[in-house]
Amino acid sequence: MCGIFGYTGTGRAPEIVLEGLKRLEYRGYDSFGIAVPGTPVQVIKKQGRISDAGQCTYSLHGTVAIGHTRWATHGVPSDVNAHPHQDCTGKIAVVHNGIIENYAVLKRELMGRGHVFTSETDTEVIAHLLEESYNGDLLGAVETILPRLEGSYALLVIAEGDRRIIAARQHSPLVIGIGDGAMFAASDMTPVLEHTRRMIVLEDGDVASLTPDTLEIFNGGNPRKRDEEIVQWSVEDVRKGGFPHFMIKEIFEQPDVFSAAIRALRSEELPTRLLNAGQVVLVACGTSYHAALVFKYLLEEQCRIPARVEYASEFRYFTPPIEGLVIGITQSGETADTLMALRMAALHNCSTLAITNVMGSSVSRIADHTILMHAGPEISVAATKSFIAELAVFLHLIDAIREGGCAARLDHAHRAIDEALLLDLSSAVKCCIPAQDIFFVGRGPYYPIALEGALKMKEISYIHAEGYAAGEIKHGPFALLSEATPVVALCPPGDTYGVMVSNIREMKARGTPLIILGEGGDRDLEEIADVFIPLPGADSVAGLLSATVILQLLAYHTADALGRDIDKPRNLAKSVTVE
Ligand code: F6R
């Protein structure tokens, strides 16, 4: 959701923080702000995008700064609601990611004691609470007020004339970067990678005090030592590398991501025995949920292991009777719903396994076991390469369970992704551009691929798109089909081919423009389709991967032709750390 970044060192802090916030903008982009601890504390903050802000820091000076890029939760996007927030005296400034759930009670109390609030945010209560506790010892003041906060937070705090940054974390990610005569604190690793690969991931309850040369960490008032990690991601991973958008860069990285994931998994010992522990429950959100659905189909069909898939947001509150293994799938490792679902699973005495892309993320602290998907940092708000990496993990797990690793199958999949990237989709894109609604249909494991295709289309092009199990279309949605409603049909060879062709013909009879993905050379499909797209690897599991890539590209090029802001879709942000 929001992104926070702090720097203390010897360089020009406002500019360093400004650049760092640009890297974090994918976490939220409706307003931003920076504060430096001069006398008094100086703050600039504005509604709008930091990437459009130019050199807005010219009035700020110093070697310490904290900053924030916002995804609004409490209060509309505006200059006053932008962070940093300050107390009544202007001596303290705070940036915050998360939600203070009891802020309304605290605000009433504080106003009763004469505090004047300037914003509608939950965060401002923190600044006023600090004002009451601060007597020159900023660390002590933060430690005093934290027990009063309910909810989630990653906080950075500075005070007038103090060169320290105080950082605190509870249920919201916060990493510390250790540089050469400089310290960094950030919501995730991306802005820190420019400066250092030495990172420490703070744990819940940690409070840290940062100076250019020292880092002290406390938890419950006691000093704590946290392990330093050398992050393998490179700074190139967080740059566009000549592509116009992160999304298309990440789509094109997928052949490498798939191979890298498989290579890494081959050298790890995977907890496959857990999957044989009776029923498997998969919990996830959004794109990761669709990947989980693919896994369910493959696990049941190829390993005869029963699996159910639940939206993490539902599972947490409506937990079904469960036993055995619960797997949480989350690219970011920070999605609040998935974290809560895994906590719930642990309360029901289930074993828990996390599949995530981010080393040291919150999910890996909650789950009994973690498998990393090795996709590299995903910056685009619309997830692409993490989906392919999740499928790589699942295919590898299935091979491991069947004890017959099938390298050829995985090489074939890699080739199919490569070939999909080379296809000309211009006719299909032309068909989608004028549409107000598009249906995506498939059967079996292609059904979740259709769901994912529809999600990609709607989130970046803003064309309403629905994914359907092809057989369900005639139970209602048929009423919506017309010459203006394209259907994208996933129709590989196999058991359901015949019935899919019947479904497609029924749609054709309603005048619906048909974009069909099927095996190259299928004359029947070519004849029915308005646009036929040959599906690389259609006769094997590789077709699932190539179909995914084709639908990502279809969404991307449609959105691009419509002039959408692809890397920053309306109302969205990466990493949903609130419920
Ligand atoms: C869609 C998208 C979201 C995420 C969802 C879960 O393109 O990115 O639907 O997939 O928010 O995120 P993770 O996998 O980080 O838990």
Give a topology summary.
Blueprint: E1 3-8, H1 13-24, E2 31-36, E3 42-47, E4 64-70, E5 85-86, E6 92-100, H2 103-112, H3 124-133, H4 138-145, E7 151-159, E8 165-170, E9 175-178, E10 183-186, E11 198-201, E12 206-210, E13 215-219, E14 222-223, E15 229-230, H5 246-252, H6 254-266, E16 280-284, H7 286-303, E17 307-311, H8 312-315, E18 325-330, H9 336-347, E19 351-356, H10 362-366, E20 369-372, H11 385-401, H12 407-421, H13 426-432, E21 437-442, H14 446-461, E22 464-469, E23 487-491, H15 497-508, E24 514-518, H16 523-528, E25 531-534, H17 542-561
Parallel strand pairs: 16-17, 16-18, 18-19, 19-20, 21-22, 21-23, 23-24, 24-25
Antiparallel strand pairs: 1-4, 1-10, 2-3, 2-4, 5-6, 6-7, 7-8, 8-12, 9-10, 9-11, 11-15, 12-13, 13-14
Helix pairs in contact: 3-4, 6-11, 6-12, 7-11, 7-14, 12-17, 13-17, 14-17
Summary tags:
579 residues, alpha/beta, Glutamine Phosphoribosylpyrophosphate, subunit 1, domain 1, Rossmann fold, eight-stranded antiparallel β-sheet, seven-stranded antiparallel β-sheet, 17 helices, 33% helix, 22% strand, globular, binds fructose -6-phosphate
